[in-house]
Each structure stands twice: as C-alpha cells, then as structure tokens.
Amino acid sequence: MPIAPQYSLSHQHLFEFDASVSSEIAIRRGADPARLSIWYFTGGRFFGEGLQGVLLPGGGDWATVESEDQLRIDVRAVLETDDGARIYMQYRGLWRALVPGALTRLLRDRQAYRHDEHYLRVTAQFETDASRYSWLNGIVAIGVGGYADGSVHYSFYAAR
Known about the structure:
This protein has 160 residues and is mostly beta strands. Helix content is 4%, strand content 59%. A hairpin with a 4-residue loop joins strand 6 (70-81) and strand 7. The mean pLDDT is 93.
C-alpha cells in the first residue's frame, strides 16, 4: 500500500553561486582512491534577488573521496554582500557519478561536466550578524551543483 506524504517541501530561489577552486591537495586515507581532497576557493560571486556579492578568500571544500564515483562535500565560506554584510555559509552534501568513471574523468582528465552524468546536491546553513540578512540564520538551503573549468556552480534554494 502506498504511503501518502504528510508534508510537502516548497522552495524559493535564493542565489546563484560561482567559485573558482585551487588545485587539489590530497591526503591519502587507506587504499586508493580514498582520500581527503582539499580545494581552496580562489575567488567567486553570488547573485540573487536582493542578495549578491563576493566570496572572500580563505574558504574551501574538505571533501572525502569515498570511491572513484562518490565524494562527500564539506564546505566553509564567507560571503560579503555588495552592501558590506558578511555571511558565514557552510554546506555539506554528496557528489556521485551516475555514469561509472564520470567523476574521475572530470576531475583528473578535465572532461566536460554533464548534468546527466552527476548527482551533486548539498544543504547549506548561514550565520550573520547583519540585521537585514538575519532571516538567513533561520533557514536551510538546498543547492544543486555543477562543475566547469576549475569552478563550481550551485543554484541555492531556501527550503520553506
């Protein structure tokens, strides 16, 4: 017997996020390919309705590579809005190749990212002391991502 959901999930577009990343710093964890894969942000921007600015230096992704086809994302970043507010953002999630070998071909061989070959989803939380953006402190955002030319891109949505 099918189970009817008791709740629904609505969402609202929050912002687009683009970040360029450094070369990988790898720390092996047992048998290849298991490793801690660190990618520092080297620049970036975010832009949405009423929320836009730059990605400050110092953040990045401390991803755990579990296999050739899957990694766990663990990001910390500081956003600075065009009006000077600072917002701490952290997001975690999963990047999984839907086609065997697609993740390795992308990251090692620099082949083009194809959305139909990857599942890249994250959840984000925010912290700010800027009163005009304090509403961010009380939401969870969902990000759908992609990768191209040394940069990650996410579309973030506020889960309602």
